[in-house]
TrEMBL record:
GO terms for molecular function: peptidase activity. Keywords: Hydrolase, Protease. This is Protease I. It comes from the Bacteria. PANTHER family: DJ-1 PROTEIN (PTHR42733), DJ-1_THIJ_PFPI FAMILY PROTEIN (PTHR42733:SF2). Belongs to the peptidase C56 family. The keyword Nucleotide-binding does not apply. GO terms for biological process: proteolysis. Transmembrane segments: none annotated.
């Protein structure tokens, strides 16, 4: 039986930041589940950069069904956790079930991959204190206020935590995460 990886996300998550790790980890042989506030079809978004805009733009993205609700998650069944970005982390970070799930992975030193706005979740759970992380650059003040070190890099590795700035960092981010997984959470 293949090791399982959990993706915690919700509506308005960045499409690429959900689907790239979802497909890449399945390609490696992992069983991947998506957890959301409820079992429903999630509406993801596409963040893109347009000349003349001071920030990214947001357009409707793909839809995808959540495999389970946060309250149904037994984190002990999962070898690793992925936290995509987009706008979902800003409302998920205060969910007590999300904090329960995240805390489990950090307390047991299980691999965690986070990207873009994903660190908003680990910051709210108090799991980044004393760690180094990448994040979407606008989150640097949040990362520093949460007691973590901010690094502007495509694949920042701090123990079993692997982080990146945004979807353009996918190749480096997933390459580094898979190296951690092969060491700490092999497929089977």
């Amino acid at each position: 039986m293949a090791a399982k990886i959990l993706i915690v996300t919700g509506d308005a998550a960045e499409s690429l930041e959900v689907f790239y790790p979802y497909q890449r980890l399945r390609e490696e042989g992992y069983e991947v589940h998506i957890a959301a506030p409820t079992r429903k079809t999630l509406q993801f978004v596409v963040h893109d950069f347009v000349d003349g805009f001071d920030t990214y733009t947001e357009k409707p993205g793909y839809t995808w069904p959540a495999d389970l609700a946060f309250g149904e998650v037994d984190p002990a069944e999962y070898a690793a956790l992925v936290l995509p970005g987009g706008r979902a982390p800003e409302y998920l970070r205060n969910n007590p079930e999300v904090q329960r799930i995240v805390t489990h992975f950090f307390e047991l030193d299980k691999p965690v991959a986070q990207i873009c706005h994903g660190p908003l979740i680990t910051l709210a759970a108090g799991s980044l204190t004393g760690r180094r992380t990448a994040a979407y650059p606008a989150l640097e003040p949040d990362v520093l206020a949460g007691g973590a070190g901010f690094e502007d890099g495509e694949a920042v590795v701090d123990g079993v935590l692997v982080s990146a700035r945004a979807w353009p960092d996918h190749p480096g981010w997933m390459r580094a995460f898979i190296e951690v997984l092969r060491d700490k959470a092999p497929v089977d």
